[in-house]
Amino acid sequence: MPLLVDPDRVVSAHATPNQLLGKDVRMKVGFVGLGRIGLMHVNNLAANAATCGVSGIVLFDDLRDRADRAAEETGAVKTSAVSSLAALLGSVDAVVIATPTPSHPALLQQCAEAGVPTLCEKPVASDLSTMRRVVDMVESHSTPVVVGFQRRFDPSLRAIKSKIVKGELGDIYIVRSNAYDDLPAPAEIIRASDGIYRDLMIHDLDAVPWLVDQPVVEVASWGSVLADPIYAETGDVDFAAVTLRFASGTLALMAAGRRNPAGYDHRIEVLASKDSVIQGLGARTPIRSFEPDGYAFPDKPFSGFADRFRAAYIAEITEFVHIAAGRAPNPSPVRDSLVSIQLAEACDASRRSGSAVAIEPASA
Ligand SMILES: NC(=O)c1ccc[n+]([C@@H]2O[C@H](COP(=O)([O-])OP(=O)(O)OC[C@H]3O[C@@H](n4cnc5c(N)ncnc54)[C@H](O)[C@@H]3O)[C@@H](O)[C@H]2O)c1
Question: CA–CA distance from 261 to each of 227, 236, 294 (Å)?
Fold first, then answer.
């Protein structure tokens, strides 16, 4: 991949430290897929382009109108639309893939072969055997691939992770997580989704083992259709509970749901030998306390994932630019996705069989 191709364009990930420190280092970032999450990433990057050295954004969607409309509406940085992936890859220094999950492996391969650093939305693949192939393919190229698990970029969860790494929490006894959507996604997205474990719980199936930093040895899960019968049409559920047992005996209890009348609610709580800490319990957490001196229900509860994880998504997209330019380490490498997809498959198997599932190491 050429360096400093045009005046608006960066340096690639392979730039030397001097180029990266130089004042003229500017990047063009491409986006593939401009639906719910793709447009959010575009807007977050456009609003923060100046601070991370981005001089241009290039957009591609199978629906050309979407790319044209988004290019017109994106302010703050020069934005254009192109009509093919090849045109996009030929004109950018980094790419964000935000298309539906089944398209990720092939798109990632094209980005890796073009030598363009990539942020790929989660999950990178829908099953463990495809994930293994993608990990091998990505690692056979030297181009960084960051997986869009935004919890790894969330300031509060990062603070907890840092305490764990420094030994400040001591031994972890039990982790509890909950991920409750406020409202289900539109019907067409539900029908195309890979189910609650691969679509929604995959975030916590990534984040909880990442926090605990030990292998999971056993998984059990239950699920029910309780609020929206549409989930039964595809054999999916809209509420699920998962238990993980880690190698040391540490336990995790995880809950997820597709509908919460109080608002969008995600929390992770860690009880350990030196402290008990929580991420996600704050002034906008939508839960009612019935204690006389309890927490007051917020005026503005979180309205959805983009609202709840706003700081995490901004950190993710701006840090991605630094990773692509070789200025920062990758906190969400594609190899780590082997764990979450293996656990998602095990959850599915456990829910269907009614039995716990033993986990073997998921090496590629
Ligand atoms: N990290 C998160 O919190 C989060 C949240 C929502 C979705 N996601 C993930 O993001 C991905 C996209 O989800 P979404 O809800 O934004 O989907 P969406 O259906 O709203 O948007 C997808 C877009 O991609 C376009 N597209 C489809 N195939 C394409 C291709 N081959 N080339 C170019 N454009 C193509 C579609 O026209 C559409 O505009 C999924 O993998 C999903 O799991 C992640």
Answer: 11, 21, 20
> 222-239 pLDDT, tens per residue?
999 999 999 999 899 999
Q: Which pair of tokens denotes residue 57?
A: 């954004």
CATH of domain 152-303+333-358: 3.30.360.10
Instruction: Indicate if the pLDDT at residue 173 is higher than 90.
Output: yes
Considering the domain delimited by 11-149, tell me its CATH architecture.
3-Layer(aba) Sandwich (3.40)
Alpha helix positions (H), 79-201 = 85-89, 104-113, 128-139, 155-165, 187-192, 196
Best of 64, 66, 69, 121 for a ligand 1 pocket test (most atoms within 8 Å of beta carbon): 121
Domains 11-149 and 152-303+333-358 share a fold: no
State the angle between helix axes of 310-324 and 155-165 in degrees (0 to 180), rounded to the nearest 10.
Answer: 70
pLDDT in tens, 176-191: 999 999 998 888 888 8
Q: Answer for the pair 268, 175: CB distance below 8 angstroms, yes or no.
A: yes
Best residue among 31, 37, 180 to mutate for probing ligand 1's pocket (most ligand atoms within 8 Å of CB) is: 37
Exposure string over 326-359, b if 16+ CB within 10 A, otherwise e? bbeebbbebbbbbbbbbbbbbbbebbeeeeebeb
Q: Domains of the chain: which residue ranges?
A: 11-149, 152-303+333-358
Find out whether the beta carbon of 65 lies less than 6 Å from any atom of ligand 1: no
Quote the CA–CA distance of 8 and 12 in Å, as a whole number.
Answer: 13
Q: Taking 60 as the threshold, does the pLDDT of residue 2 lie above it?
A: no
Q: What is the layout of strands, in order, in the sheet containing 27-32?
A: 78-81, 54-60, 27-32, 94-97, 118-120, 145-147
pTM of the model as a whole? 0.93
Parallel, antiparallel or unpaired: strands 216-224 and 94-97: unpaired
Calculate how far, in angstroms, residue 98's C-alpha sits from the geometric centre of ligand 1. Answer: 4
Asked if residues 189 and 349 have their Cβ atoms less than 8 Å apart, the reply is no
The atom of ligand 1 lying closest to the CA of 309 is 3
